[in-house]
Amino acid sequence: MSAVLRIRDLSVSFTGARGALVRAVEGVSLEVAAGEVLGLVGESGSGKSTVGLAALGLHDPARTRIEGSVEVAGTEVVGAPESRLRGLRGSRIAMVFQDALAALSPFHTVGAQLAEAYRVHHKGASRAEGRERAAAMLERVGIAAARAGDYPHQFSGGMRQRVMIAAALVNAPDVVVADEPTTALDARVQRQVLDLLAELGRENGTAVLFVSHDMGVVGDFTDRTAVMRNGRVVEEGTTARLLTDASHPYTRALTGAAPTLATLPGSRLATVDEPAPVTPPRPAAPVVDGPPLAELAGIRVEFPGRRGLSVRRPEPVVAVRDVSLRIEPGRTLGLVGESGSGKSTTARVLAGLQRPTAGTVRFDGRDVSDAARDTALRRELSRDVQLVFQDPYASLNPRRTVEEIVTTPLRAHTRMDRDERRERAAGLLKQVGLAEDRLDRYPHEFSGGQRQRIGIARALAVRPRLVIADEPVSALDVSVQAQVLNLLMDLRDELGLSLLFVSHDLAVVRHVCDEVAVMRGGVLVESGERDQVFEAPSSEYTKELLAAAY
């Protein structure tokens, strides 16, 4: 079968500081045949997305030097004029981006955007034909045609990604480049999107270049896989072989870094620098007799409904309904659910950042339900309860040095002087695996995994008793994710911390948690010991999540 996407000896360089060229991709050669799915795997900075963008000619020619050849259905992309590339994009090659909300126009309905993509490449098509094609494509990706008049913000993350797939396939292109299209999606929605992309690709004979950092996802979806590191392809072959018998140590490290449901709970995860597990699995922490450290009882959270000319009496939105949870001293509770399930809202209630509409929040036996409204109470609670956020860049002030960031809680809760705070910050950096000479640097000077370590150091500054980790590794590459998970487990054991670990990744939750609670639609559908929930789930919804994760 002949290749419809042929990349030969591709090198890409960007203009860096003082005009120097920075080589991002060097000597990459790949081929993808019609109907085939090729995975392109690597960590952030490996060059995989650069290759995908080069296939569509999307790099800025003013600051990019591209050498080599990229052919799409026999048409050369490298060096082609923009007029030819505009005709090629959408009709012969299309792209599914990672962030569908950012890629779709917020000012136009999804139907209008699909219709425009169709009519641009079918000059004789009428507006009615464009609307008809858009409606048909929405139906094909499982979205009712009646929703063509809705805007992107009115859809869930999974549905927006379906719209992106519809837009990419509206003209039945020869090639689709899918750049991390499911990274931010829950396991069940991720499975639905991947199955849909594979099915439509087979129907149309479309070649798919699937860019990802997750070997587990690539293993489920691709026929062959190429592994990139530092701008080069280090290994290529059938996906089945790479997952079971990879020859390059970097490929083996990527394969072993992401926990699966078969991974021994609590065992040390492999990383690029530490390719083999070095510790035995950790048994679940025992339940200690006595009252829980934190407790939610009958929590309900409502948000005001929409107000507008057509809505006179908006109904409130119920985000959490009658949720009751206990976190025992020294144990880790995993809170699982899809986007919109209410898990993050529940975590905010426990942290004193969201006032419950009804119910009681207790910490160490004390009623702290009103902490979100009572400044003094919230200040007291924040000494014992700290958070680690999902985005390690957005959660750190870019104008503050690491020392200033890490010592913020110390300035609020202690009487330490400047030298004492700096000494404490240096010790915290060492504790999370960073050198103390980095105290005077800024967040942008660190990698994503290093920034997350800084966020963990800040959370530990005042020696809290409970840490709430809200999707702390979902934005990280698998090897960096393994480093952060290993660190969290080490710190938990060393400091005797209690953890509330919020995630949609069942494999990660099984790996780090002692107990698991599952939420759906704001309701707690199941909770119990880790092994009980994963091996003998009582809820049909939990069974669906587990089936999607395998």
What fraction strand? 15-25%
CATH topology of the domain at 36-57 and 85-257: Rossmann fold
Query: What is the assigned CATH homologous superfamily of the domain at 36-57 and 85-257?
Result: P-loop containing nucleotide triphosphate hydrolases
Tell me what the CATH architecture of the domain at 36-57 and 85-257 is.
Answer: 3-Layer(aba) Sandwich
The gross shape turns out to be globular
The number of E-state strands comes to: 20
Strand order, sheet with most strands: 6-7-8-3-9-10
Task: Give me the number of helical elements.
Answer: 20
Low-pLDDT segments, ≥5 res: 307-313
Q: What would you report as the Rg, rounded to the nearest angstrom?
A: 25 Å
Helix percent band: 25-40%
CATH class of the domain at 36-57 and 85-257: Alpha Beta
First-residue to last-residue Cα separation: 31 Å
What would the average pLDDT be, to the nearest integer? 85
Which secondary-structure class do the elements indicate? alpha/beta
Characterize the largest beta sheet: strand count, sense, and whether it forms a barrel. Answer: 6 strands, mixed
Question: Could you outline the blueprint of secondary structure elements for this entry?
Answer:
Layout: E1 3-15, E2 21-33, E3 37-41, H1 48-55, E4 64-72, E5 75-76, H2 82-88, E6 93-96, H3 100-103, H4 110-120, H5 127-140, H6 157-169, E7 175-179, H7 187-204, E8 207-212, H8 215-221, E9 224-229, E10 232-238, H9 239-245, H10 249-257, E11 294-303, E12 317-327, E13 332-336, H11 343-350, E14 358-363, E15 366-367, H12 375-384, E16 385-388, H13 402-406, H14 408-413, H15 418-431, H16 448-460, E17 466-470, H17 478-495, E18 498-503, H18 506-512, E19 515-520, E20 523-529, H19 530-535, H20 540-549
Parallel strand pairs: 3-8, 3-9, 6-7, 7-8, 13-18, 13-19, 16-17, 17-18
Antiparallel strand pairs: 1-2, 1-4, 4-5, 9-10, 11-12, 11-14, 14-15, 19-20
Helix pairs in contact: 4-5, 5-6, 6-7, 7-20, 15-16, 16-17
